[in-house]
Fold these 2 entries.
Entry 1:
Amino acid sequence: MIISEHTKKTKRQEKIAKGFIWSFVVLTIVILAWIVLYVLFRGFYFRNEVSYDVTNIKEQQIVLNEEIEPVVFIVHPKVRVKDLTSEDLSTIFTKKRKEKWGPYTRQDLRVETFILQGGTDFTDSVIDFLEGPEQEINKYATTVPDIDSMLKKVASTRGAIGFVPASALENTDFKVKIAPIRRISAVVHPSVKEIVNNIQMQELSTDELERIYRGEIKNWKEVGGIDLPVKPVLPPDDVPYSVIKSNLLPEGEFGPEVVHADSFDDFCSVMKETPGAVGLCFYTDVLEKGEELSIEEIGRVESGMNLTIHYLIEAPARSGAWGGISTIIINTFFLIIFTLIFSTPIGVLGAIYLVEYAKQGRMVKILRLGTETLAGIPSIVFGLFGSIFFVNMLGLGIGFISATLTVTMMILPTIIRTTEEALKSVPDSFREGSLALGATKLQTIRRVVIPAASPGILTGIILAVGRTVGETAVLIYTLGSNYELVRGPSSSARVLSLHLYNMFAEAISFDRTFATGAILIFIVLLVNYSTTRMIGRMNKMAGN
Amino acid sequence: MEQNETKLKIKVDKLDLYYGDFQALKAVDMDIHENKVTALIGPSGCGKSTFIRTLNRMNDLIDSVKIEGNITYDGTDIYRGYDVIELRKKIGMVFQKPNPFPMSVYDNVAYGPRTHGIKNKAQLDEIVERSLKGAALWEEIKDRLHRPALGISGGQQQRLCIARVLAVEPDVVLMDEPTSALDPISTSRIEDLIDELKMNYTIVIVTHNMQQAGRISDSTSFFFEGVVIETGPTEEIFFNPRNKKTEDYISGRFG
């Protein structure tokens, strides 16, 4: 092959340059994709570690004592409850004010409690269990006469919770949901929680608890605690304590060191006297015995779908901690639509004037410089202007109309600039062709120039929509933070970006913040995709 | 062929045209006769395009243009006696590069009539068909009327532009180098078309192509540096030029 030294050198340089460009491009794309995917992932899926006073052992049927049938707690099928602790149950039934499901299921839904008519052993035992040592069933609970009407009521009342004997659910047509209950706590001897060498035992996981009882963990330091031998203790074999054993390790493969208590008193005394002891009992026992049994917290990983359909269609409550974001999505679309109604005609007509009619002199140059500068000004400056001018001077107040006008001011330069470019890119031959046919200037602009420029104009409008969707700084001072549906021109509202900002700033929920971010990304993707399709179709119609 | 037999369509008298301070046309006199093809030839920058654009006042679009002298169309001054819209309806123009609008073939042809207020669908259909037939495009394009005009070939686009002009039912058709962007086959088709069109229309054509001027035109004017050097029947200009410059240009010594 014939190749000169100089050509070789040039080719080598070219290769190096290509390598640099390629690696920068790949790096940028990887970073951008990572950001988007991270937000989408966190938006869709949550995974949190939460500590509880009770273990993760769930009981569908709860054996309270030997004399009565196991009890099952039932809820209305729309209540999205996965499980409840016995403490939750007791709060729901005994708290002085009416509870909402929010703390347990994130639903903005009132709890309707139902109890069976008293007088039977079954009802009295369950109420005893719910009341605990101190509280009483609250006045909001509705008493129903029999099991059938209980099932009927719970199946038909939104947010209902009640209880029935386990056998009642075997042959019933009523659609109710069983709420599994967690009521088994792990307790430890106080020595386990002591601080030695700056180390203190933190929470245990359910898995670690099982391994302790299998005899696989012999020292507390293996699970992050101090150097102290583990002494696992099991409660007695009689009802109701026998369920603890069978629920923890159904196969019964307990380690040889496990101490089996003969009675509950025996269990308590062993727990009290053995350093390093860990035992299992009911949460209600801990409440009764007080300081004799000290609770070891159990951590569990809670994960699942974050961005559910419920999140999209429910109205927000409690600053966004409960419910969904439906009203906020609608507010966002309202803001986009009204901003476009104000800004598109002004922007497009202004650009038409600048390009088609204005004499291209010094004045137009200054105007152009002005719009260019305005397009680059930080949005917070527009926010400041809006809050002083629209909110205060014009007295419009913080609300939808002030926000719409301020955002209009902000996106007008963008629309004007892009429309101008689009109009300028229409070849003069189109204008000449039309004028030579005897069309007037207005006819030419309306029927030839604007249709030919419409893909470009549309691009500008989409850029403006993108800015509107993502705008936060302007809206903080002009739109306020009411998360309800916007009711009129002066009602304060919240849009997605503001909601995200507020939930993040007020540390309401990271999961929900990310879910909102994911929705924002989706809206922008949707808008961009549909515009690309539209522009594609327009170009196809025009034959470009 | 005797020119006196036909009616005088456009008369240009002592036309001076300035772009700012630059004088592009100097005392141009010209007679354009009905149902004849008048060719304007000359080297680049000689003012022939500027001249043809004054005939339907396309130069009005340029702010710095100043015009002195008289142009009469059917005896009426086009600057003082005609509204520019009315004038352009009568005197249509085909440009150097095909410039169909970015819409369908049908809409392109119907654009002129629609602009002038014809809304009736049947009437528009009839005009479109007649105009496309007039531009010898109907047979090729009748199945693709609703396809985008920018998707057809360059030669077809140029004939579409001619059809678009014919749809307005003009009297005079100005053509500014209509074949310079086309291949030889498309060019010959346009030339054939011009030959047919002169039955019904008066045609003024600017061309760079000497053979084309010789083939299609009845009379020819030679422009040089803004001045009409020589004008007369085409055969005379080509075979027996009176002026030395005309002879040099036609024989290819410059230009």
Entry 2:
Amino acid sequence: MIKAEQLSKTFLHNNGPHVVLEDLEFHLEEKEFVAIVGRSGSGKSTFLDLVMGLTQPSSGSITRTKPDLTIGYVFQRPALLPWRTVLRNVALPLEIAGEPRQVWEEKARHSLAQVGMVHTAEGYPFQLSGGMAQRVAIARALVQEPDLLLMDEPFGALDPILRDNLNVNLLKLWARTKKTILFVTHSINEAIFLSDRVVILEEGRFIEEVVIDIPRPRDFDTFHSSEFIAKVRKIRSIMPIQPNLPRAPL
Amino acid sequence: MTFFCLLFQFVAVEKLTYAAGYIPNVQFAPFYVATSRGYYAEEGLELKMDYTMGPETFKLVALGKIHVGSADPDAFLHAAVRKIPLVHVATLYQSYPIAMIAREEIFEAEKLRNKRIGITGTYGSSYLGLKVMLTEMGLGLKDVRVVPIGFTQVAALQQASVDVVVGYLNNEPVRLKGLGLDVFTYSPGTGNHIPGVGLMTSRKFVEQHPDRVQGFLRATFRGMHDVIKDPRGCFKLVVEGYLPQLSGSANYEAEYQILLATLPFWQSEYMTAEGYGQSPSESWSVLARYLQKDQNNADYANWQGFIDRSFRWRPAQE
Amino acid sequence: MKIPSLLLKTVSPVVLVLSILLMWQLIIWVLSPQEWLFPSPLLVWTRFNELWHANALQHHVLVTGTEVLAGYGLGIFLGLCSGYPISQIRLLEKVATPYLVAANSVPLIAFAPLLLLWLGSGMGTNIVVAAMVVYFPVTISTIAGFHSVSPYHTRLLHSLRANKWQRFRRLELPSAIPGILAGMKIAAPLAVVGAVVGEFLGTGEGLGHLILEANGLLDTAQLFVAIIILALFGICFYLSSLGLEQLLTGPWHHKRRL
């Protein structure tokens, strides 16, 4: 579905060019759940922007096998518009695409149902807790029934117990809807739990890929299984411990 | 001995505030001259000039915050009708120099119809004067176009943004002639003469200190008499003491001309006969009748209760 | 016993007005000032009735009301039109901001006599003065409003491939509305002042003229009538802005968390 070859991206800053991504090779097949793990500043968001087509590569290529690929995007923060009801927030992508009211209203409700949030449809974002809001954001990303779902550390701002809960629910959703998901996180545990394979991004390069062959369906118990712990150990050993990289040259 | 003299000085001189109703200018010459030549001091008074503008002076005098104030006669009657406790004690201007001023001879009904008449504002003495003059010509307010122009009379005529202005004979025509422009004027007819600007004080003050009021009036009219007798000399005195911005300026002569143009309004046959200080009783009646009709209020007829016409002063025979 | 909030909302302004009237009357009873200095509420009410029945008020109220409304509307319209471009173009903003701040700090009504000289006296000039004093706070708060757009939201709309107009309509404008309304609330009483100042300088019409006339006639009751009507104008405009704010942002504002 997605193929990147010798993909590079360089940003120009006041004190010189900053190479964010260098010579990436990547492929993504349909119905896969792939996690990208990397520390803050390793270029994860930039990679997602390239996949989305929001920015162009400095060199190399990124191709989509389907020409009009629809992509849903979930951010780190829910980014719900406070002046719109939950329902209208979910419907936003359809409104922008020009769909009539009956269509977007029905699709938005359906999407909310998929994340279990239909009862909040007439409420406003300020009434939602962090976790609830993020679920609404996921519903929004799904409302156009995209081929690909990009998720950029969507649960990063939430507390760990809630996070685990959402992870389990996400897998259930994925099993139901059979989407292709590319999930970016800096949590090794989360990456392993969710995905079929984990790609490790370090200093702008994909340094390693680890296949996660833990059987599905996975649930809370998976976190304690020996296979899980083994994968954690493996990935930890690959990722070097270094000081944090800045987002832009200091 | 010196101590007692000083004490006497301290006790004998009473401060007296006078609200002139406008910013310092040559028309206040009598007050300036009387102060310079010590006439107030001779009456045991020390004059302090106050330059608050407009109708506020009425309330200030009534409240006793100021002792004596200048009074437009129609405003005074308005105050009297509102039962503000004031007494009118003397008249400074024997007639009101209100006039319509234009650069063409258009002061008859058919020529004046629909012309633009510039006036300070549609209230006050000038508005009343305008109504009187229009009535004399057989016109009403709706037959002309009244345009409020604030204090820009001279500029308005110069630039012809209006056809006529309502102003004062001793002011705008003098200034316009000074700019080399010819002017024509129209004033209210003799039958419609009303008193000019006068002096008022609060009822309380005149009841408690009649001597100070008398002293103030005497000294003031002595000053006025001096100015009439020797305008050039007094003008010099006034400029040096109170209007220093005029000395050496281009306006020096122009302001002197204004002073000269003012002198006739301080005098009249009535004044020559009776002495300084009052206007004929008839002029007050005319005014009262006019206001009664204009304001539709019968209370204006009771003006006698507020106007004390007892003060007179004659200069000592030289 | 819980008092329903709607009842509270309608009763409290009434209570406020009544208490002001009571305090006024109390001052009259205690100090017994002269009628011509400080009239009682009853006297002012009587004078109001006299003027109303003599048809001496209606025209002036209409004149001032029109000036305030037109000035307010014009000032807001121009403020919005200039505020948006300035907020979007960085260079323009750098250049314009010092002038805006300076102009907002100067008491603009001091320019009214100058405007009168250039434009002549009349309702038009008063509308211009009112629009001028409204323009600056509205522009400044419009700029602030458009600056308050969250970068996350901008990224979201960008990722949804929204075009410029959609971005404006669905994101920028709703984000800016609280800021814009704040400016409108500030400007409401200013519009009244602006319109009246022009009238003070002598247009012969309007509530400002009534005030001058009342002053000249030493009719303090009439003065109070005019002043109270002006105050009501200011309050009306303020409440309309408040109402608009409640309408547009009521359900969700001041509770932003996301």
